[in-house]
Amino acid sequence: NAGVTQTPKFQVLKTGQSMTLQCAQDMNHEYMSWYRQDPGMGLRLIHYSVGAGITDQGEVPNGYNVSRSTTEDFPLRLLSAAPSQTSVYFCASSYSITGVEASYEQYFGPGTRLTVT
Amino acid sequence: AQSVAQPEDQVNVAEGNPLTVKCTYSVSGNPYLFWYVQYPNRGLQFLLKYITGDNLVKGSYGFEAEFNKSQTSFHLKKPSALVSDSALYFCAVRGWMDSSYKLIFGSGTRLLVRP
Questions:
Q1: What does the pLDDT read at residue B96?
Q2: Chain B contacts of A106, Cβ < 8 Å?
Q3: Which residues in chain B are closer than 8 Å to A41, comparing Cβ atoms?
Q4: Residue B13 to residues A56, B45, B91: CA-CA distances in angstroms?
Q5: 3-state secondary structure of A42
Q6: E strands present in chain B
Q7: Per residue in B37-51, pLDDT tens?
Q8: Mean of pLDDT values over B25-39
């Protein structure tokens, strides 16, 4: 298994540009999420999905859109990039979130370092 | 509201000495607690979790953590530190009643193990 993969690894955007960060997992995980990591602030949840066709907002959703058309993929779209979106973005997935045998451990991708100038 | 506090930005310890990385939490109801480690330019890796059961949880790479409900703490420990343990450590919490399944992360503690 490749686990959780993210592309690109690095990206530089100009203010106002749009782009999509890709995330894919090959573990048949129900739950997928996007976080951003900023110095001294830990990880903050942007959006999450509990299954194909279902998405919801996290702590810091403004300026980002997501969709979940398949179990495997969970792209994050920046609609109009701003310098405040300069950050490292991590995608994560989890096998199951319900039931007695649910595993709440999340598997993280390697991250995308985004700079907006 | 759920929250996690990691009161130390950095912990310094000599190789071979025991280490402790502190974490306290605030959550409604019973907590689900996690520790993750991040090495430079890498994603987070799961170390251990507390869901229910024994208060002392053992995890990867010789790490363990003790859940203390009265003190709302979940400190990460290792009896003998290695230089290779140097990394950024994150504590995270989720309330068991939280239907959004969100993990709330602390701000992270950098562990530096001196040879």
A1: 60
A2: 44, 46, 103
A3: 107
A4: 41, 22, 19
A5: coil
A6: 3-5, 10-14, 19-21, 24-26, 31-38, 44-50, 56-58, 64-68, 73-78, 87-95, 104-105, 109-114
A7: 999 888 899 999 998
A8: 90
> Residue B48's pLDDT is what?
93
| Amino acid at site B99 | S
Q: What is the mean pLDDT of chain B?
A: 91
The chain A residues in contact with chain B (CB within 8 A) are 4, 31, 35, 40-45, 48, 50, 56, 58-59, 90, 92, 94, 97, 104-111
Category of B62 on φ-ψ map: left (φ > 0), alpha (ψ -120 to 50) or beta: left
Read off the tokens for A55. Answer: 């998405």
> How much is the pLDDT for B101?
66
Half-sphere exposure at residue B88, Cβ-oriented, CA atoms within 13 angstroms: 18
Closest CA relative to residue B48, chosen from B87, B101, B89, B4: B89
Q: Average pLDDT over chain A, rounded to whole?
A: 91
Please write the tens of the pLDDT for every residue from A77-100: 999 999 999 999 999 998 866 654
User: A46's torsion region: left (phi>0), alpha (psi -120 to 50) or beta?
Assistant: alpha
CA atoms of B9 and A40, how far apart (whole Å): 8
Q: Are B47 and B58 in contact (CB under 8 A)?
A: no
Confidence of residue A112 (pLDDT cuts 50, 70, 90): very high
CB contact under 8 A, A90 and B43: yes
